Amino acid sequence: MSRTSKKSAATARKARIEEMRRTEKARERRNRILTISVSTAIVVGLVGFGAYYVDRANDKDEQQQAAAKKPVKGEKSWNAKKLTQNHVSKPVSYPMNPPVGGDHNQAWMTCDGSVYTKAIPNENAVHSLEHGAVWITYNDKAADADVKTLADKVGKTPYTLMSPVEDQAGALMLSAWGKQLTVEKASDPRVQQFLTKYVQGPQTPEPGAACTNGIDAA
């Protein structure tokens, strides 16, 4: 091969190498751009996703606060100042059933999401109401499915308790200190409204008092 031919071949080889390098650099540049774009999209998506759930949580809090401010339709109220808070050791004759306040036993029923399948003493339950608990009661008019639904709800809600009261007027009743609501179904939206408003609510005579380490039914 002549010197001229060798020089031409070397020049062509060098040109091919340079072209390959340019192609490789262009591919690396595209890959970097693609990686950055995908990463940016993921970050933006995660930020948007997080913001969405923060907004949802804030909306839920606002809805619960709004529900707590509204009166619960159909609830009965008693003057809290007339509901005495003396500790007594004898049975108490209450003017309402279930009772929503008044003199009571010095021991409270454990009300940390407590579900009792047998009747409990009124005097101990009233002490739980004094501590800010909501007491859900039912009789044999209540559907089994509704009782189970409410039991599940109580089990997940501190400062609540549940038990049967066979001689109460309504199928399902919710009681707080000085407040009471009767419903026919567990799906009634007023159930959650009542819980939101009165679990450790403004009606509580002794807010923050314990609902644990009380009396547990056998």
Automatic annotation (TrEMBL):
Annotated Basic and acidic residues bias: 15-27
Transmembrane segments: 33-54
Span list, region Disordered: 1-27, 64-92
Pfam families in the record: DUF3105 (PF11303)
InterPro entries hit by this protein: DUF3105
Domain of life: Bacteria
Keywords: Membrane, Transmembrane, Transmembrane helix
Name of the protein in its database record: DUF3105 domain-containing protein
Organism lineage string: Bacteria, Bacillati, Actinomycetota, Actinomycetes, Kitasatosporales
